[in-house]
């Protein structure tokens, strides 16, 4: 990457703060206006004045702008049933020229652990690393469990207001809360199912062996969850092989995917990724269903070992879920893309005992990635959108329209932007959201 395009840390923090302030203000206005709602749309309906991208504009082989036009969409049975020339006088929902993009996906969040919608609480001084945070959780979880469903519901509304209709949520499974966090979250998601869907990761936040969470993980694996989680096998559980072997076998036994938290940045972090790659290659059914969240060790590898691991991750079809950290831990996202590794993002913490800086916007994460890696051109900014949409883009790299198509699920976000490049660069305000054809707002 071109380092001269990367912001200095001081400049980045200044610009980032302004962006976050704008997003929070926009979301507050939406909530104050009472616009966030969920309406089940079983009958066909139309939306006029929808702006769609149709191609790139070139100058001397460089993409300098994005072509768009207005269309009328027909929605039926949760899908796009027709895309026609715009009918501005038609009796239809009016998008008022808003840009339609694929609905956003927050692919790493903890919906079950949040202070959101309650009184402000700053993060307490951390003591003892992750194990110290485990001790803190053991003390505060019993009280938090009393309002998990209500706060999770409010957090879902925050994500919706920022254009996300889908999330991958890690949910605590450990001896303190047992299966209660999972049950509470199921109740919250059931109430939001018309406008939101989440795939769930059974997450042994207090370690598989450190607090012996294995019995509860086995029960959770048989319930309505999608992934088996994990946490720092070496530093928390004392053994990479024992922890990964348990996780892999549980996933195989219950036909689940895998998504493990890996904060370890030293030799143990590298060995954990290498061992997971080995196990997934031995069990091809896990390919395309296995992810490493955070994977901070990749940010500290030299070029040659990084290239080798990236190539191996791509071979095993193991994805990386990153919150796009900055400062001393800048993840090698361009290298992962270069080798064809799937990269996802999410807010992780919104407001909880781990972190209070979450905005709820994954479009902001795409903006952050573009700033960190110098993706400043029209073409590069438009490609950056894929971080927010789980790798769906309106135009392919050559400017051919590939979304939306008739038959696609009616999952889309409407934004006040002229094109996806502007949406990423300016973190464009969200004006509407559809989920499976249902009008969320």
CATH architectural label of the largest domain? Alpha-Beta Barrel
Could you tell me how far the N terminus lies from the C terminus, measured between alpha carbons in angstroms? 39 Å
How many β-strand runs? Answer: 16
The outline comes out as: globular
How many domains, in number, for the residues? Answer: 2
**What share of residues is helical?**
25-40%
Describe the structure.
Residues 246-441 form the Amidohydrolase domain. It holds the Pfam family Amidohydro_3. This is Amidohydrolase. It is a single chain. The longest helix is centred in the first third of the chain and has 24 residues, at 9-32. The protein is α/β, with parallel strands linked by helices. Strand 9 (227-231), helix 6 and strand 10 form a beta-alpha-beta unit. It has helices at residues 9-32, 129-144, 148-161, 180-191, 214-221, 240-254, 267-282, 303-316, 333-338, 362-373, 378-384, 386-389, 420-426, and strands spanning 45-59, 62-76, 79-85, 93-94, 99-102, 104-109, 164-172, 197-203, 227-231, 257-262, 290-294, 318-322, 343-345, 412-415, 430-435, 438-439. It folds into 2 domains: 34-103 and 393-439, Urease, subunit C, domain 1 (Roll), CATH 2.30.40.10; 105-378, Metal-dependent hydrolases (TIM Barrel), CATH 3.20.20. The two termini are 39 Å apart. It is 35% helix and 23% strand. The chain has 13 helices and 16 strands. The strands form 3 sheets. It has an 8-stranded parallel β-sheet with strand order 6-7-8-9-10-11-12-13.
